[in-house]
């Protein structure tokens, strides 16, 4: 669980073009290496679960087969499947890291991945929230943000100054959104209009 949280926090930038639009950021490149390594490791542990005699072996087998098919040949035994994981393309692993691989792990490690219902855009005082963000910026806070919690709660927060945090110049137009509404942390720049209409991630 700790490794999953750490990977989500460290590697979220590889899923958002805002951090590496030209695909030439060396810091994001190093995060891709980390993400691929974690993906392979979690898949290998899933193979161990699928080929073992535990109660979740069948669930793990079905989850791996549904996502990777013959690319991970469980029918040929554990060693063959583990060797195949080492040969999987990095881009394929990254594509599946955000949702499918956590789902596979969840088949034998309950409660790692979960999906929650979207947050309703109604009953939130976006005008007041915008005022609080503007006030925070005036107080000198560089990265005030809207936080969407895993349970759907909306709050005001402040993100640390890190190289991968996108900059927002005019907080009356756009704002940082830190969302944990689907169990995976995301940091995005969204417009107040999208927040008000429920089009922002986690609100639609």
UniProtKB/TrEMBL annotation:
It comes from the Bacteria. This is Uncharacterized protein. It comes from Aminobacter ciceronei. The lineage of its organism: Bacteria, Pseudomonadati, Pseudomonadota, Alphaproteobacteria, Hyphomicrobiales.
